[in-house]
Amino acid sequence: MLGYSVRRLLLIIPTLLGILLVNFAIVQAAPGGPVEQAIARMQGLDMAQDLGGATVDSFATTATSSASRGLDPRLVADIERQYGFDKPPLQRLWLMLTQYAQLDFGSSFYRGISVTDLIAEKMPVTVSLGLWALLITYGISIPLGIRKAVNNGSAFDVWTSTLIIIGYAVPAFLFALLLILMFGGGSGLNWLPIRGLVSEDFATLSAAGKVLDYLKHLVLPVTALVVGGFATLTLLTKNSFLDELSRQYVITARAKGAGERQVLYGHVLRNAMLMVTAGLPSAMLHVFFGGSLLIEVLFSLDGMGRMSYEAAVSRDYPVVFGSLFIFTLAGLLIKLVGDLCYRLIDPRIDFSSRGH
């Protein structure tokens, strides 16, 4: 298993390099970059007013043509130098890769802070949101899936399946809007806050008050995040247990007089959990980095998802590439941990033959 882990860790390097190269090439072809935006501001263009329904391409064309009609070429050169666009693309790529090899992601174009500090500032919000969503999803879905498998075909199984399929069919952002309307004072009950992770007077609250305030702010965004993964994991758990319950070793254990609880948790659980563990990496990626984007924007949570969205819109390339690097690295490591969890659950699994 050690050899397999080392090989997987070494494969992370070319994978990261390939993803960075592809995205760097896309960025070079994308119009409306920071240089064009700076030139437009220098020309006194109001992006929101002048663009209206125009595309980013038309904006870039407008900015470039404006520069050629009167902006001092030396000033344009200074702007390009400020954003690092005075060098050829291959040289910029090489400088970026050498910096990334030292875990130096540069500084944000617009925020006046290093990307590393910015990510460290935003990460706790995303991690906090993701951990709660993951704990609640697994804490409810696994017991519910087991009970549905044991009571397969019963009225309980039918109505719970109906509810979770309906929940799965509703997009997370639409469910979030529904929660805001119902419980955030939109047009219903004003029970729960809908902005941030804590209130403005958080520092003045007592210890118990701070905990309560934090939990109240988590209810709506975490609920919106849980819905999709909850349905998938519940049905996966149920189907895994149903598959194991039909196997010969379960029939043999029952024939020898083993109780239903002993059969379920002493024999079936370990084998059935392999399929559930297989879905853990993708569930973690969705909760931490995929589903958090719209949820953070809707609930004004200052986390990694919202930061990445704003950076992409404003063409803040150091932040875009830095967050992409972190997301990709975390995803690869999470998938490796998911594979290793197989071995912890079932020591019979051997990775020594993989990778040849």
Instruction: Categorize the overall geometry.
Output: globular
Please name the CATH architecture of the largest domain.
Answer: Orthogonal Bundle
The first-to-last residue Cα distance is: 13 Å
User: How many β-strands, per DSSP?
Assistant: 0
What is the overall number of helices? 16
The fraction of residues in strands falls at under 5%
CATH superfamily of the largest domain: MetI-like
What's the SSE pattern?
A: HHHHHHHHHHHHHHHH
What is the percent of helical residues? over 70%
Number of individual domains: 2
Radius of gyration: 26 Å
Which regions have little confidence, pLDDT < 50, spanning 5+ residues? 46-69
Largest sheet: none
Mean pLDDT: 75
SS-derived structural category: mainly alpha
What layout of secondary structure does this protein have?
Blueprint: H1 2-29, H2 34-42, H3 47-51, H4 56-68, H5 73-82, H6 89-101, H7 115-150, H8 155-169, H9 172-183, H10 207-245, H11 248-255, H12 260-278, H13 280-290, H14 292-298, H15 304-314, H16 317-345
Helix pairs in contact: 1-16, 2-4, 7-10, 7-13, 7-16, 8-10, 9-10, 10-12, 11-12, 12-16, 13-16, 14-15, 15-16
Organism: Pseudomonas reidholzensis
GO biological process, one term: transmembrane transport
Family: Belongs to the binding-protein-dependent transport system permease family.
